[in-house]
Design brief:
11 helices, single chain, 187 residues, Hypothetical protein af1432, globular
Length: 187
């Protein structure tokens, strides 16, 4: 169900980013031998950037200063409507809320940690060398970036402008845009 809402509210490049985030996260999780709930990690990955879409405000029923927190509220609300139990909704919401932090430790939950690591790999290339080159190429071929760098830079600049006190605003002031542009991916 999460992939359906993702596809209905997001452009293709953002859909691919969310799928890659999940796959990077799962690969890293297995490599590090973490025990994680694959379904919760997938749902969190699929919905982690819903706060960047126009649909977030409708889903969240409340607007907050940070798109990641707004996305966490939206995901929690969506999952509640699907009848997902509160403890599972909380795991997804926590992971989404924390994915824009500079770090998310295992103390926040393995799914939050892995979502952060997968998103960081896809956005700025963090830990890229932890994934074998053939695996990277296969994943990027299956889920192409579709000019993600330029599109994400535009969204981050917009978030920084409309929500200057958010984590996106803070990160942009300290070089996040340059990090996105320097990521070891073509687009």
């Amino acid at each position: 169900m999460a992939h359906i809402i993702l596809a209905s509210v997001s452009e293709a490049w953002l859909v691919n980013h969310c799928f890659r985030t999940f796959l990077w996260a799962a690969i890293l999780g297995k490599k590090e031998q973490h025990r994680f709930d694959e379904e919760l990690l997938f749902v969190a990955s699929a919905l982690h950037d819903v706060g960047l879409t126009d649909a977030a405000a409708q889903l969240a029923a409340t607007e907050v200063e940070c798109f990641a927190v707004e996305g966490a509220f939206a995901a929690e609300h969506f999952l509640a409507k699907q009848g997902v139990e509160k403890s599972r909704r909380d795991v997804v919401a926590e992971a989404i809320s924390l994915h824009m932090n500079v770090r998310a430790s295992l103390a926040h939950g393995v799914e939050a940690y892995l979502l952060h690591e997968g998103a960081a790999l896809d956005v700025v290339g963090a830990r890229c060398r932890d994934i074998a080159e053939p695996t990277r190429q296969e994943l990027l071929t299956s889920y192409p970036r579709l000019e993600m760098k330029s599109r994400l830079v535009t969204l981050m600049k917009r978030q920084s402008s409309i929500r200057p006190h958010s984590r996106a605003g803070l990160l942009c002031r300290y070089g996040f845009i340059s990090m996105i542009r320097r990521a070891p991916f073509e687009s």
